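Weekly puzzle thread! Below is a chain. First person to post its structure in token form gets bragging rights.
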Amino acid sequence: MEFPYLEAVLGFMICMYIFETYLDIRQHAALKLPNLPKPLLGVISDEKFERARAYSIDKRLLFSYFHFVHEAVTIVMDTAILYYKILPWFWKLSGNFALYIGLNPKNEIIHTLSFLAGVMVWSQITDLPFSLYSTFVIEARHGFNKQSLRLFLMDMFKGVCISIFLGPPIVAAIIVIVQKGGPYLAIYLWVFILVLCLAMMTVYPILIAPLFNKFTPLPAGELREKIEKLAASLKFPLKKLFVVDGSTRSKHSNCKDEEEVVAVIAHELGHWKLNHTMYSFIAVQNKDLEEAAKILTLLQFGGYTLVRNSKDLFESFGFDTQPILIGLIIFQHTVIPLQHLLNFGLNLVSRTFEFQADAFAKKLGYAKPLRAGLVKLQEENLSAMNTDPWYSAYHYSHPPLVERLAAIEEPETAKKED
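Winning reply:
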């Protein structure tokens, strides 16, 4: 008897939708609480709390009520796409389109790029209303948005152009590696992604980031001297310091007080000194890539190599052929339960790293300005003061402010009691 891959995937998708909706309901209830958490009493003003509370609730209209509708539509669409075999239909349609414009769909790279082009157009169309609502309604209502519609569309256009420029060679390379990889396929794919990530880390700040933000050298002065002194004391190879101007798009702020800025940088250097950056890079090389690339890790590639030739797996999803990209997509769906567990574990690790970086900055003598900086960032950005512990544990890679302040203050309290 064949294993019901499709039915198992659909069942888990629906269960996760129900669970995550329950977490959203819990978080919305937490945001509506009328009082500050006890640790923040006297730390954050009532006026700031009410503004943050109103903003959080309003924003949750997008990520709760509006989000519920969006997620409900998404789960219905995804279920229909898989259950009614729309994915194989769209694969064939993309092949016909390639043939129509004079390309050879028998070439798997061309066929795959045609398929991805259709997926990109679809995702842009379906995501656009939610992005517009978030930017020009929610953010604007609370005084954060500074983007014009023209700038918004330009950013979207630049993002599409970058995808068009970088996507085809990356996809083509992956297909060739899978075709030629043989028994060492998983290792070849992992090495390719490793090299790609290193290249992107080099190229992004030089060529891509300046397309969206203005970078200017930090002028000489006391702040620069303090940062350079801190970096030198930790033997951090600091080469250049830049100020990123994000004010053309948003009024969400960063620290402005010099001591607070240095304290936050001490926290970030703590990540470097404690090797958090290296651990995170090795564990999740592609954390910030698009959804289609999230499966490209060594273990997942290893699993993919075990099932990529499974005729039953492809047939369960309606395919009578075994395209490489489709195999990756199907495999991603079949390991969704493991991915959720992995993401939860990575969030736990990330939160631990944040506590350790805070403790590192404190050991350097920055406890007071770090505490003040965290509070100010929370206030100025109207971040949620009350969070549901279940929702936080599942979704947040950074601990809530209450937990971070308690961790910063706890050793001092213990010393006083001694």
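Puzzle host: Confirmed. Bonus trivia for everyone else. The beta strands are 214-217, 242-245.
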